[in-house]
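cron nightly-structures :: item 1 of 1
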Amino acid sequence: MNQKILFQFPRILILMALFPFLTLAAVIFTPAFPYLAAEFQLQESEAQWMMTLFLFGAALGRLPYGPIANRFGRKKTLLIGLYSALIGTLLTIFSGSYLFVCIGRFIQALGCAAALKIGQTMIGDLLSGVEATKVFSYGALSFAILPAVGTAIAGLLTPFFGWRGGFLFFLIFTVLLILSCFFLEETAAKTDPTALQVKRIISAYADQFKNRSLVLWGCLLGLSTTLVCIFAQQAPFIASNLMGISSQEYGMLTLVPAFGVILGSLLTTTLANRVDSMQGILVGILVTLTGTGLMAVFFLSSWISGWALFLPQAIIQLGDVILYVNISSRGLSEAKDKSNASAIMLFVTGLVTILGTYLVGTFVPKSFLSLPLVFGLIIVLMLTIWVWTWYAAKIVLKTGE
Protein backbone atom coordinates (compact mmCIF):
# COMPACT_ATOMS: atom_id res chain seq x y z
CA MET A 1 0.00 0.00 0.00
CA ASN A 2 1.16 3.51 -0.77
CA GLN A 3 1.91 5.31 2.47
CA LYS A 4 -0.07 8.35 1.25
CA ILE A 5 -3.27 6.32 1.55
CA LEU A 6 -2.77 5.86 5.28
CA PHE A 7 -1.91 9.46 6.05
CA GLN A 8 -4.63 11.19 4.07
CA PHE A 9 -7.16 13.32 5.91
CA PRO A 10 -9.24 12.20 7.84
CA ARG A 11 -7.27 8.99 8.41
CA ILE A 12 -4.40 10.87 10.00
CA LEU A 13 -6.83 12.29 12.56
CA ILE A 14 -8.04 8.79 13.40
CA LEU A 15 -4.48 7.59 13.97
CA MET A 16 -3.76 10.63 16.12
CA ALA A 17 -6.79 9.72 18.24
CA LEU A 18 -5.53 6.14 18.62
CA PHE A 19 -2.11 7.08 19.96
CA PRO A 20 -3.25 8.69 23.24
CA PHE A 21 -6.40 6.56 23.66
CA LEU A 22 -4.84 4.44 26.41
CA THR A 23 -3.38 7.51 28.12
CA LEU A 24 -6.76 9.24 28.01
CA ALA A 25 -8.38 6.22 29.66
CA ALA A 26 -5.66 6.14 32.31
CA VAL A 27 -5.99 9.79 33.39
CA ILE A 28 -9.66 10.57 32.65
CA PHE A 29 -10.70 9.93 36.26
CA THR A 30 -7.92 11.92 37.98
CA PRO A 31 -9.95 15.08 38.73
CA ALA A 32 -12.57 12.89 40.44
CA PHE A 33 -10.17 10.58 42.28
CA PRO A 34 -11.03 12.09 45.71
CA TYR A 35 -14.76 11.78 44.87
CA LEU A 36 -14.33 8.08 44.13
CA ALA A 37 -12.46 7.50 47.38
CA ALA A 38 -15.14 9.34 49.34
CA GLU A 39 -18.09 7.50 47.76
CA PHE A 40 -16.65 4.05 48.42
CA GLN A 41 -14.99 5.10 51.70
CA LEU A 42 -11.55 4.06 50.53
CA GLN A 43 -8.16 4.59 52.06
CA GLU A 44 -5.69 6.20 49.67
CA SER A 45 -3.77 2.91 49.34
CA GLU A 46 -7.01 1.12 48.36
CA ALA A 47 -7.89 3.77 45.79
CA GLN A 48 -4.58 3.14 44.03
CA TRP A 49 -5.71 -0.36 43.05
CA MET A 50 -7.88 1.07 40.28
CA MET A 51 -4.78 2.53 38.63
CA THR A 52 -2.68 -0.58 39.32
CA LEU A 53 -5.23 -2.96 37.78
CA PHE A 54 -5.66 -0.63 34.81
CA LEU A 55 -1.92 -0.66 34.15
CA PHE A 56 -1.82 -4.44 34.56
CA GLY A 57 -4.62 -4.81 32.02
CA ALA A 58 -2.83 -2.43 29.66
CA ALA A 59 0.38 -4.47 29.85
CA LEU A 60 -1.32 -7.85 29.57
CA GLY A 61 -3.55 -6.67 26.74
CA ARG A 62 -0.61 -5.85 24.50
CA LEU A 63 0.51 -9.46 24.12
CA PRO A 64 -2.42 -11.08 22.24
CA TYR A 65 -2.81 -8.23 19.74
CA GLY A 66 0.49 -9.06 18.04
CA PRO A 67 -0.49 -12.52 16.73
CA ILE A 68 -4.13 -11.49 16.29
CA ALA A 69 -3.04 -8.62 14.04
CA ASN A 70 -0.82 -10.98 12.04
CA ARG A 71 -3.70 -13.42 11.63
CA PHE A 72 -6.68 -11.15 10.91
CA GLY A 73 -5.06 -7.85 9.96
CA ARG A 74 -4.59 -4.57 11.78
CA LYS A 75 -8.04 -3.07 11.24
CA LYS A 76 -10.09 -6.00 12.57
CA THR A 77 -7.79 -6.35 15.57
CA LEU A 78 -8.15 -2.66 16.35
CA LEU A 79 -11.94 -2.92 16.35
CA ILE A 80 -11.81 -5.94 18.68
CA GLY A 81 -9.85 -3.84 21.16
CA LEU A 82 -12.14 -0.84 20.90
CA TYR A 83 -15.25 -2.96 21.47
CA SER A 84 -13.59 -4.41 24.59
CA ALA A 85 -12.80 -0.89 25.83
CA LEU A 86 -16.45 0.04 25.31
CA ILE A 87 -17.66 -2.92 27.39
CA GLY A 88 -15.20 -2.14 30.20
CA THR A 89 -16.26 1.51 30.27
CA LEU A 90 -19.94 0.59 30.51
CA LEU A 91 -19.20 -1.81 33.39
CA THR A 92 -17.26 0.93 35.19
CA ILE A 93 -20.03 3.50 34.81
CA PHE A 94 -22.79 1.19 36.06
CA SER A 95 -20.76 -0.38 38.89
CA GLY A 96 -22.29 -0.25 42.34
CA SER A 97 -19.17 -1.37 44.17
CA TYR A 98 -15.48 -0.57 44.05
CA LEU A 99 -14.72 -4.19 43.08
CA PHE A 100 -16.68 -3.87 39.85
CA VAL A 101 -15.16 -0.46 39.17
CA CYS A 102 -11.74 -2.12 39.25
CA ILE A 103 -12.92 -5.03 37.07
CA GLY A 104 -14.41 -2.59 34.58
CA ARG A 105 -11.17 -0.62 34.47
CA PHE A 106 -9.20 -3.83 33.91
CA ILE A 107 -11.39 -4.81 30.92
CA GLN A 108 -11.24 -1.24 29.65
CA ALA A 109 -7.43 -1.36 29.73
CA LEU A 110 -7.34 -4.71 27.90
CA GLY A 111 -9.23 -3.10 25.06
CA CYS A 112 -7.44 0.26 25.08
CA ALA A 113 -4.10 -1.51 24.76
CA ALA A 114 -4.94 -2.29 21.13
CA ALA A 115 -5.07 1.37 20.11
CA LEU A 116 -1.43 2.39 20.62
CA LYS A 117 -0.09 -1.05 19.67
CA ILE A 118 -1.99 -1.22 16.37
CA GLY A 119 -1.31 2.45 15.65
CA GLN A 120 2.42 1.83 16.06
CA THR A 121 2.25 -1.31 13.94
CA MET A 122 0.41 0.43 11.10
CA ILE A 123 3.11 3.09 10.93
CA GLY A 124 5.85 0.44 11.26
CA ASP A 125 4.29 -1.45 8.34
CA LEU A 126 4.95 1.47 6.03
CA LEU A 127 7.77 3.61 7.41
CA SER A 128 11.15 3.40 9.13
CA GLY A 129 14.05 5.63 10.16
CA VAL A 130 13.65 9.39 9.93
CA GLU A 131 10.24 9.14 8.24
CA ALA A 132 8.88 7.00 11.06
CA THR A 133 10.33 9.40 13.64
CA LYS A 134 8.60 12.34 11.96
CA VAL A 135 5.24 10.58 11.81
CA PHE A 136 5.52 9.48 15.45
CA SER A 137 6.26 13.10 16.36
CA TYR A 138 3.12 14.26 14.55
CA GLY A 139 1.14 11.59 16.37
CA ALA A 140 2.62 12.79 19.63
CA LEU A 141 0.74 16.07 19.17
CA SER A 142 -2.42 14.18 20.05
CA PHE A 143 -0.85 13.19 23.38
CA ALA A 144 -0.95 16.88 24.21
CA ILE A 145 -4.44 17.57 22.99
CA LEU A 146 -6.64 14.59 23.78
CA PRO A 147 -5.68 13.61 27.38
CA ALA A 148 -5.45 17.26 28.45
CA VAL A 149 -8.77 18.29 26.92
CA GLY A 150 -10.43 15.07 28.11
CA THR A 151 -9.22 15.56 31.67
CA ALA A 152 -10.32 19.19 31.65
CA ILE A 153 -13.78 18.15 30.48
CA ALA A 154 -13.86 15.43 33.16
CA GLY A 155 -13.08 18.09 35.77
CA LEU A 156 -15.99 20.20 34.56
CA LEU A 157 -18.37 17.23 34.55
CA THR A 158 -17.40 15.97 38.01
CA PRO A 159 -19.60 18.37 40.03
CA PHE A 160 -22.63 17.24 38.00
CA PHE A 161 -22.02 13.49 37.55
CA GLY A 162 -19.53 12.70 40.31
CA TRP A 163 -16.61 10.41 39.52
CA ARG A 164 -18.58 8.92 36.58
CA GLY A 165 -18.45 12.21 34.63
CA GLY A 166 -15.11 11.53 33.01
CA PHE A 167 -16.10 8.00 32.07
CA LEU A 168 -19.27 9.27 30.38
CA PHE A 169 -17.12 11.51 28.19
CA PHE A 170 -14.79 8.58 27.47
CA LEU A 171 -17.77 6.38 26.53
CA ILE A 172 -18.96 8.88 23.92
CA PHE A 173 -15.44 9.30 22.57
CA THR A 174 -14.98 5.51 22.26
CA VAL A 175 -18.20 5.14 20.25
CA LEU A 176 -17.10 7.93 17.89
CA LEU A 177 -13.66 6.36 17.48
CA ILE A 178 -15.17 2.96 16.64
CA LEU A 179 -17.28 4.54 13.91
CA SER A 180 -14.27 6.47 12.59
CA CYS A 181 -12.06 3.38 12.35
CA PHE A 182 -14.20 1.99 9.54
CA PHE A 183 -12.51 4.63 7.34
CA LEU A 184 -9.04 3.17 7.97
CA GLU A 185 -7.33 1.02 5.35
CA GLU A 186 -5.64 -2.30 6.13
CA THR A 187 -1.84 -1.90 6.21
CA ALA A 188 -0.73 -5.52 6.59
CA ALA A 189 0.76 -6.72 3.31
CA LYS A 190 -0.55 -10.21 4.07
CA THR A 191 -2.00 -12.23 6.93
CA ASP A 192 -0.59 -15.40 8.45
CA PRO A 193 -3.11 -18.26 8.93
CA THR A 194 -0.76 -19.92 11.44
CA ALA A 195 -0.16 -16.83 13.57
CA LEU A 196 -2.53 -17.96 16.36
CA GLN A 197 -1.05 -21.43 16.78
CA VAL A 198 0.24 -21.74 20.34
CA LYS A 199 3.67 -23.01 19.33
CA ARG A 200 3.98 -20.24 16.79
CA ILE A 201 3.04 -17.57 19.34
CA ILE A 202 5.51 -18.89 21.92
CA SER A 203 8.26 -19.12 19.33
CA ALA A 204 7.58 -15.64 17.93
CA TYR A 205 7.54 -13.97 21.35
CA ALA A 206 10.57 -15.94 22.53
CA ASP A 207 12.50 -14.61 19.54
CA GLN A 208 11.50 -11.05 20.42
CA PHE A 209 12.50 -11.46 24.09
CA LYS A 210 15.94 -12.60 22.91
CA ASN A 211 16.36 -9.19 21.33
CA ARG A 212 18.13 -7.47 24.24
CA SER A 213 17.92 -4.04 22.64
CA LEU A 214 14.15 -4.33 22.21
CA VAL A 215 13.71 -5.29 25.86
CA LEU A 216 15.94 -2.44 27.02
CA TRP A 217 14.02 0.05 24.89
CA GLY A 218 10.84 -1.28 26.46
CA CYS A 219 12.30 -0.76 29.95
CA LEU A 220 13.40 2.77 29.12
CA LEU A 221 10.00 3.62 27.65
CA GLY A 222 8.38 2.07 30.73
CA LEU A 223 10.38 4.31 33.06
CA SER A 224 9.41 7.32 30.97
CA THR A 225 5.74 6.32 31.12
CA THR A 226 6.05 5.77 34.86
CA LEU A 227 6.84 9.46 35.31
CA VAL A 228 3.44 10.33 33.82
CA CYS A 229 1.52 7.61 35.68
CA ILE A 230 3.03 8.48 39.06
CA PHE A 231 2.07 12.10 38.50
CA ALA A 232 -1.49 11.05 37.57
CA GLN A 233 -1.60 8.92 40.72
CA GLN A 234 -0.04 11.33 43.20
CA ALA A 235 -0.98 14.79 41.90
CA PRO A 236 -4.76 14.63 42.59
CA PHE A 237 -4.18 13.96 46.29
CA ILE A 238 -1.38 16.51 46.59
CA ALA A 239 -3.51 19.13 44.81
CA SER A 240 -6.68 18.37 46.79
CA ASN A 241 -5.38 17.55 50.25
CA LEU A 242 -2.23 19.67 50.45
CA MET A 243 -3.05 22.59 48.14
CA GLY A 244 -6.85 22.80 48.42
CA ILE A 245 -7.34 22.80 44.65
CA SER A 246 -10.89 21.99 43.42
CA SER A 247 -11.64 19.35 40.79
CA GLN A 248 -12.56 22.05 38.25
CA GLU A 249 -9.31 23.95 38.82
CA TYR A 250 -7.35 20.70 38.71
CA GLY A 251 -8.95 19.78 35.41
CA MET A 252 -7.96 23.12 33.89
CA LEU A 253 -4.41 22.90 35.24
CA THR A 254 -3.96 19.61 33.36
CA LEU A 255 -3.91 21.73 30.19
CA VAL A 256 -0.52 23.15 31.26
CA PRO A 257 1.52 19.95 30.60
CA ALA A 258 -0.19 19.77 27.20
CA PHE A 259 1.93 22.69 26.03
CA GLY A 260 5.04 20.70 26.93
CA VAL A 261 3.80 17.77 24.87
CA ILE A 262 3.04 20.04 21.90
CA LEU A 263 6.49 21.61 22.07
CA GLY A 264 8.07 18.16 22.43
CA SER A 265 6.32 16.83 19.33
CA LEU A 266 7.47 19.85 17.33
CA LEU A 267 11.04 19.54 18.58
CA THR A 268 11.26 15.85 17.66
CA THR A 269 10.50 16.71 14.05
CA THR A 270 13.42 19.15 14.05
CA LEU A 271 15.70 16.77 15.95
CA ALA A 272 14.99 13.95 13.49
CA ASN A 273 16.86 15.88 10.79
CA ARG A 274 19.82 16.79 13.01
CA VAL A 275 20.52 13.96 15.45
CA ASP A 276 20.11 10.20 15.41
CA SER A 277 17.64 8.43 17.68
CA MET A 278 20.26 7.59 20.34
CA GLN A 279 21.12 11.26 20.71
CA GLY A 280 17.42 12.14 20.68
CA ILE A 281 16.80 9.70 23.56
CA LEU A 282 19.57 11.33 25.61
CA VAL A 283 18.08 14.77 24.94
CA GLY A 284 14.72 13.51 26.20
CA ILE A 285 16.26 12.18 29.42
CA LEU A 286 18.06 15.45 30.11
CA VAL A 287 14.87 17.45 29.55
CA THR A 288 12.96 15.31 32.09
CA LEU A 289 15.84 15.90 34.52
CA THR A 290 15.48 19.66 34.02
CA GLY A 291 11.75 19.55 34.81
CA THR A 292 12.36 17.42 37.90
CA GLY A 293 15.00 19.81 39.17
CA LEU A 294 12.69 22.77 38.66
CA MET A 295 9.90 21.05 40.63
CA ALA A 296 12.31 20.40 43.50
CA VAL A 297 13.43 24.03 43.50
CA PHE A 298 9.83 25.29 43.59
CA PHE A 299 8.84 23.08 46.51
CA LEU A 300 12.05 23.73 48.47
CA SER A 301 11.39 27.46 48.12
CA SER A 302 7.91 26.86 49.63
CA TRP A 303 6.02 27.93 46.51
CA ILE A 304 2.85 25.94 47.18
CA SER A 305 0.78 26.43 44.05
CA GLY A 306 -0.79 24.43 41.28
CA TRP A 307 1.68 26.07 38.90
CA ALA A 308 4.59 24.77 40.98
CA LEU A 309 3.19 21.28 40.40
CA PHE A 310 2.09 21.49 36.77
CA LEU A 311 4.66 23.79 35.15
CA PRO A 312 7.63 21.46 35.85
CA GLN A 313 5.45 18.55 34.76
CA ALA A 314 5.04 20.28 31.40
CA ILE A 315 8.82 20.19 30.96
CA ILE A 316 8.95 16.56 32.10
CA GLN A 317 6.28 15.58 29.57
CA LEU A 318 8.14 17.52 26.88
CA GLY A 319 11.06 15.20 27.53
CA ASP A 320 8.73 12.18 27.63
CA VAL A 321 7.50 12.94 24.11
CA ILE A 322 11.06 13.15 22.79
CA LEU A 323 11.77 9.82 24.48
CA TYR A 324 8.63 8.12 23.20
CA VAL A 325 9.15 9.17 19.58
CA ASN A 326 12.83 8.22 19.41
CA ILE A 327 12.49 4.96 21.36
CA SER A 328 9.50 3.82 19.29
CA SER A 329 11.23 4.67 16.03
CA ARG A 330 14.50 2.95 16.96
CA GLY A 331 12.93 -0.12 18.52
CA LEU A 332 10.60 -0.86 15.59
CA SER A 333 13.15 0.06 12.91
CA GLU A 334 15.48 -2.66 14.24
CA ALA A 335 12.75 -5.35 14.22
CA LYS A 336 11.70 -7.54 11.30
CA ASP A 337 8.37 -8.67 12.78
CA LYS A 338 6.86 -5.24 13.49
CA SER A 339 3.63 -6.53 15.04
CA ASN A 340 5.17 -8.89 17.61
CA ALA A 341 8.10 -6.55 18.27
CA SER A 342 5.67 -3.73 19.07
CA ALA A 343 3.68 -6.06 21.35
CA ILE A 344 6.76 -7.17 23.31
CA MET A 345 8.23 -3.69 23.63
CA LEU A 346 4.93 -2.30 24.89
CA PHE A 347 4.43 -5.32 27.18
CA VAL A 348 7.81 -4.67 28.83
CA THR A 349 6.88 -0.99 29.00
CA GLY A 350 3.67 -1.90 30.80
CA LEU A 351 5.36 -4.22 33.30
CA VAL A 352 7.91 -1.57 34.25
CA THR A 353 5.15 1.04 34.57
CA ILE A 354 3.05 -1.25 36.78
CA LEU A 355 5.96 -2.03 39.09
CA GLY A 356 7.06 1.58 39.41
CA THR A 357 3.57 2.98 39.92
CA TYR A 358 2.61 0.29 42.43
CA LEU A 359 5.78 0.71 44.52
CA VAL A 360 5.43 4.48 44.64
CA GLY A 361 1.69 4.38 45.35
CA THR A 362 2.13 1.84 48.15
CA PHE A 363 5.30 2.91 49.90
CA VAL A 364 5.95 6.59 49.09
CA PRO A 365 4.01 9.17 51.15
CA LYS A 366 2.18 11.88 49.24
CA SER A 367 4.16 15.01 49.97
CA PHE A 368 5.57 17.92 48.03
CA LEU A 369 9.09 16.55 47.80
CA SER A 370 8.12 12.93 47.12
CA LEU A 371 7.50 13.56 43.42
CA PRO A 372 10.88 15.18 42.53
CA LEU A 373 12.77 12.65 44.67
CA VAL A 374 11.09 9.67 42.99
CA PHE A 375 11.41 11.24 39.55
CA GLY A 376 15.11 11.82 40.15
CA LEU A 377 15.65 8.14 40.98
CA ILE A 378 13.78 7.05 37.85
CA ILE A 379 15.84 9.38 35.67
CA VAL A 380 19.07 7.90 37.09
CA LEU A 381 17.80 4.47 36.00
CA MET A 382 16.97 5.85 32.56
CA LEU A 383 20.47 7.27 32.15
CA THR A 384 21.95 3.94 33.23
CA ILE A 385 20.00 2.06 30.55
CA TRP A 386 20.96 4.60 27.90
CA VAL A 387 24.66 4.32 28.74
CA TRP A 388 24.43 0.52 28.73
CA THR A 389 22.70 0.48 25.33
CA TRP A 390 25.06 3.08 23.86
CA TYR A 391 28.11 1.11 25.04
CA ALA A 392 26.68 -2.16 23.66
CA ALA A 393 26.07 -0.53 20.27
CA LYS A 394 29.67 0.74 20.20
CA ILE A 395 30.95 -2.76 20.91
CA VAL A 396 28.84 -4.20 18.08
CA LEU A 397 30.16 -1.59 15.64
CA LYS A 398 33.73 -2.22 16.72
CA THR A 399 33.61 -6.02 16.56
CA GLY A 400 31.16 -6.25 13.66
CA GLU A 401 29.09 -8.87 15.52
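cron nightly-structures :: done
Residues 1-7 have pLDDT under 50 and may be disordered.
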